[in-house]
Specification:
The complex is a heterodimer of chains A (359) and B (87). Chain A has 359 residues and is mainly β. Helices cover 0% and strands 41% of the residues of chain A. Chain A is globular, with a radius of gyration of 19 Å. The N and C termini of chain A lie close together (7 Å). With 87 residues, chain B is α+β, with helices and mostly antiparallel strands. In chain B, the strands form two sheets. In chain B, strands 2-1-7-5-6 form a five-stranded mixed sheet, with helices on one face. Chain B has a two-stranded antiparallel sheet with strand order 3-4. The chains are: A mainly beta (359), B alpha+beta (87).
Chain lengths: 359, 87
């Protein structure tokens, strides 16, 4: 029977959580990757490899890889840099996507690199050049806190040439030709700030797509939660009923296109769950209504933050949900979010959570 | 002959990399070339495109702050330090 593996990227290395036979006791391995800050880690089911995007203050950015579920590791940044004199540099590797025999890594300054040899060497795939305003993306005066970068890449399960990328603070883009050309996919989104270009200037925090219906997408935006019924070509807001329009993390139910999860946060400086009461929110009707899920989560003095890549959902018949906090806790639900259990504590600040079935 | 002393954070990244390596090199850059030949990828951990030393990698030649072009004459101790990082 496959086991469940959680890959937890933290400010002090990668941690691997493995589910016990009883489904409750989780073992923890780590810190891995020599405690480098790990922004995102993924499991590639076709090769059985784990990849971790990491950036050391001392030794720069690299992608770590493990072919034995995290027992041994190697790293490489060969080719993972802009050409000398290009006027831009890879300051951070932010996000990974593995599939169709390749690994993609999104970086800051905005670009996507590709490896077709299992993470040994990398080549630049795209900088999304030519998109409205992209000539200013490298201008320090235009950098938001955290700087601009490709913060997420979402693959299409069937078509290797099609994928989506989020440029932080700019918006969502889709390519249908393997990154040769891109189209902004931000129509209908809200922005509460001036934008010099009609099609970009949106702050997409997290994009997810229904595995049950590829035309159904959801996103947690800086301002509002939004739904698309046409594969991202247009968006409508579904924030009503949530305690905050702001948040980072999101998850789409693997079997029901109308069920979707977010973790609303205080939009101010705190960026924690409101009132110190932890909760995940679920809609079962595509955003028509929302329910608060907090059974098993702390309801007092729990000032928990959850970042954009730090919630994951598995594909079991009754799916499990998992999220990690900026204060080092990991929570799991084995019943679609109805009840929760803390499965790890005292980890470093968590940046990402991914789940995989292995074995 | 230059006597290169490497930071402990570098050691686990490369197979059989010792803390101290002796190389023949006229400059710091050449010394890193020799290390790169034996441990591919090592230069990327110390340098960024330019090339220039990474911001928090400091190099000293016989106790004096050095750059990639610093000449290494005769026997020189080269300390590579991973300097300055928050908690």
């Amino acid at each position: 029977m496959p086991g469940t593996l959680l890959l937890i990227g933290t400010r002090k290395g990668l941690f691997v959580l493995e589910e016990g036979l009883d489904g409750r006791d989780w073992s923890i391995r780590g810190p891995l990757c020599e405690s480098w800050p790990v922004y995102h880690a993924v499991y590639d089911g076709s090769s059985g490899s784990i990849y971790a995007a990491a950036a050391s203050e001392w030794h720069g950015s690299a992608v770590w890889r493990s072919a034995d579920l995290g027992e041994t590791w190697q790293l490489s940044s060969e080719g993972l840099g802009y050409e000398d004199g290009a006027g831009r540099k890879v300051s951070k590797v932010s996000t990974l996507a593995a599939g169709h025999g390749r690994v993609l890594v999104g970086v800051e300054a905005p670009g996507i690199f590709q490896s077709t040899d299992g993470g040994v060497t990398w080549t630049l795939l795209t900088t999304l050049a030519g998109q409205p305003g992209s000539e200013l993306w490298d201008d320090p005066a235009n950098q938001p806190p955290g700087h601009l970068g490709v913060s997420a890449i979402m693959l299409d399960g069937d078509d290797p040439a099609r994928f989506w990328a989020i440029v932080q603070g700019v918006g969502l883009f889709e390519t249908g030709d393997g990154a040769a050309t891109w189209t902004p996919r931000n129509r209908g989104l809200r922005a509460d700030w001036p934008r010099p270009h009609e099609e970009v200037g949106f702050c997409v925090h997290r994009l997810v797509r229904s595995p049950a219906d590829g035309s159904r997408m959801y996103q947690q935006n800086h301002v509002g939660v939004h739904r698309s019924d046409d594969g991202g070509r247009s968006w409508s807001e579904i924030t009503d009923g949530l305690p905050s329009e702001f948040g980072f993390a999101a998850a789409a139910h693997p079997h029901d296109r109308d069920t979707f999860y977010v973790i609303p946060l205080d939009p101010g400086h705190a960026r924690c769950m409101p009132e110190g009461r932890a909760a995940v929110w679920r809609t079962r009707d595509a955003g028509g209504s929302w329910e608060r899920l907090d059974r098993g989560l702390p309801q007092r003095d729990a000032h928990l933050g959850v970042l954009r890549a730090a919630m994951a959902i598995d594909d079991r018949d009754v799916p499990g949900l998992y999220f990690g906090t900026s204060t080092g806790q990991v929570y799991a639900s084995r019943d679609e979010g109805d009840t929760w259990q803390e499965i790890a504590d005292y980890l470093p600040p968590i940046w990402s959570v991914e789940v995989a079935a292995v074995g | 002959m230059a006597e290169i002393h490497l930071p402990p954070t570098l050691i686990p990244l490369f197979a059989d990399l010792p803390r101290r390596v002796d190389v023949e090199a006229r400059t710091v850059a050449e010394a890193l070339d020799r290390l790169e030949e034996r441990w591919p990828g090592l230069r990327d951990r110390l340098c960024e495109p330019g090339p220039r030393l990474r911001r928090h990698i400091h190099v000293y030649a016989d106790g004096e702050r050095a750059g990639l072009e610093t000449a290494l004459g005769g026997r020189v101790r080269v300390d590579v330090i991973a300097a300055i990082s928050g908690g």
